[in-house]
Every structure is written in C-alpha cells, then in structure tokens.
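Progress against Task 2.4 (sequence-to-structure conversion) is shown through the following example record, which the project officer requested during the mid-term review.
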Amino acid sequence: MSTRAVHIEVIETMSASSCINALRRFFAIRGPARQLRSDRGTNFVGANSNLDAAMEAEEESVNTYLCSQKCTWVFNPPHASNMGGSWERMIGTARRILDSMLLQAGRSKVTHEVLCTFMAEVTAIINSRPLIPVSSDPEAPLILTPAMLLTQKSGTPPAPPADGSETSLLKHQWKRVQALAETFWARWRREYLNVLQARQRWHERKRNLKEGDIVLLKDRQARRNEWSIGRIMKTFPSDDGLVRKVDVNVASHHPPKTYLRPVSDVVLLLEAETV
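Structure tokens generated for the chain above:
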C-alpha cells in the first residue's frame, strides 16, 4: 500500500490451502506484513477460517496470533469492489491483458515453468512504472519506481532479445517467455498511459504545460521496462493562449535528445513549481 508495488503468485487451485501457501511464500520473500486487505473471495475467506480453526486447535485465537505478529486481515464489505481501487487498478488492467493473451496461447502451450517465469516478468514490468521524480537535475533525472522501493536499486536489467519465429519459441522455452513478456509490455503500457491521461473536452481552462515541468513521454519505440522521462524546454502557445505542443528534452536517451510533441503525447508527472 505504501510502495504501490505488485506481487503475483501462481497457485494450483482457488482453494484456501493454496491461498495460505501463497501467503507463506509472500511472507518468506517480502517479510512479515502489518495488515492484509482483500475482497471477500471464497478462497480468502476460507483461508482466514482455516487459520482461525488451526489456532483454536492450539488453544490460541487467530486474533491473538495476528496481534502478536502486529498483523491484521481486513475484508472489504460484500459487493464493494470499489473499495479495493488502490490495488485493483493495477491488477485489473493486468488481468484483462493476461486473460486475452493466455486464451490465445492455449493451455497446452504454456507450461508451469513458463507461466511462473512469465508472471515474474509481468511483476517486473508493472513495478518499473514511474511514480514521481526524486531528482531535479535535467541531465540525470532519477525517477522513483515501486521496484526501487522494494530492491533499493535503480535501473532495470535489459530484456534479452527474443526470436519471434514459431520454431524457435517451441524449441526454447525462455524465448517463449520473452515473447509473451514483450506482448504484455506493449499492451499494458498502452492501457496504463491512457489511465494516467484523462481525456476531457476543453470546456474550461486547465493549467498549461510550462517550461521545467517533468513529463512522461509516450515513446512507442521504448524497450521493455524503459520509460522516457523528460523536461519541457519550450512551449508553443496557440492564438487562444492554450499550449498544444512542447519541446521535451529526454536525458535518458544517449545522447540526450529534444523532441517536439503534442500535449496528447506527454503525461505531466511533476509541475515546475514543485521541482
């Protein structure tokens, strides 16, 4: 909830036992949690009940156990999926893409190992999204991401090249994973950027983009896990005073380049007044 990071687990069945195992794997990798929040999925409620029964068998209530671990489990009210918006926003977008991709791929073509590795790649893609800039240096902008908060490391490993031929994908499972990851990256990035940028008619005046604003550039040729973050160097107001095109300097490109882009192709991350 603090890092806005996503953790995806592959489970065998939608049962309480699989849910508990997934929780144990999560705690083993990420450390103990202070609070769990979820909807009222049958496997979640069942897992909570099974934990409660297990603790009662040992003459200790689950509440006492959770308090000793400084952890609580909070369920949303029934039929209130909107109350999980802070986490459903990312998961819902990823789930829609994964549903369509895996239905097209077919169950027989995706092994358990491929699926687990693919879910790890999906997690890395989602957690590489930019949150806010933490550096005002236009020559070396540092963008905070959920992955940086989790790993305490900046940057992402480059994606290995994947041969897209059908023969190569069938022969090498790792290439199959990379092909799936590239497809997910293209679809998810497009949907995520549309979520960031609201489409509204200009019935009333909005704040114009200004020189010095930190923006996210919609770079259609960006590689996986790469986000083109830039600073607006110049604005071009129209006759009515509205800015519809800007010059954006992207320092992450080597060498740094300046692009002329319409405002529909940039997403404001941080206003110049707050840099």
